[in-house]
Amino acid sequence: MDGWETRRKRIPGHDWAIISLKHPCVIKGFCIDTAYFTGNYAPKISIQAAKLDESYDKLFPLRHGKAGTAASSDVMDQVNNLQTDEWTTIIPMSNLGAGYAETRKNYFNCPYDDAWTHLRLNIYPDGGIARIRVYGSIICANNVPDIYEKIDLISRDNGGVCVKYSNAHYGHPRNLIIRENSNSMADGWETARRLDRPPILNVDHRGILQIPGNEWAIFRLGNIGLISTIILDTTHFKGNCPDNATIKGILIPPNQQDQHLDTNEDWKSILPVTKLYPHKSHVYNLNEMNWCGPVSHIKIIINPDGGLSRLRIWGYIHP
């Protein structure tokens, strides 16, 4: 059990933890996972939230999670002075299931549209939790980016979101827009092998495989942007990178929903079909792309299947 487990409580009160989110977020829901905590899971939880500025992080005493220790009275006094127990309750006290396969995952919807920076996870009265998953949308710290600054338009740190995809068997396409470089295939996007691939493969004069079918993912950019550079990174994917890829773009009005993007016929080609190679960062500049003006969404199409570690869409905010 590599989760959070507290000692069996023999004093008044209940146990809790303060979590600082990396970015302000509008939270849509939670998954509280009690995996493997079968006889020692926390029977009840609640979640509180607050929106604090960065200076507050310095006020929380750091603890390094050494097993067999509890917060000292000085640490408790410091946190109590911050009145975290008075934060907004976004998930009221609720029951959890034991850590068996059928009952371990406990889902909760969050009814608030506020942006939060910190969470307080309360367990009643004690016990263990394996994982907490927080689902929602990042709110960019810089709401009015500099239009003259070149940024990664698709990065989740700049508000990029994966809104649709065809296949995420081994890894989700949302991993493509993580700011940090990948550590392994595990934090990239990898699909299952397509079952409609032919028994014998052929290529055209460009060396592009002639195979029916593809996999795709669609991303909403944090801001409408003008693209200047595209990076397709297959690092760590040595025997399972796609044969080729295509990038398309579209401009969708802000008030239009994302749900029909996969069938929309207005997508424009930005990067034509291009050969990919294993364990390599592929960089494409303006002279290798089709100019299609400002875009709000990006669609990456890989053929026939496989994995990518990162996708970077560098450019400028459309004024």
From TrEMBL:
It holds the Pfam family Allantoicase. PANTHER family: ALLANTOICASE (PTHR12045), INACTIVE ALLANTOICASE-RELATED (PTHR12045:SF3). It comes from the Eukaryota. GO terms for molecular function: allantoicase activity. One of its GO terms (biological process) is allantoin catabolic process. This is Allantoate amidinohydrolase. Residues 1-138, 159-316 form the Allantoicase domain. The lineage of its organism: Eukaryota, Metazoa, Ecdysozoa, Arthropoda, Hexapoda. Belongs to the allantoicase family. InterPro entries: Allantoicase (IPR005164), Allantoicase_dom (IPR015908), Galactose-bd-like_sf (IPR008979).
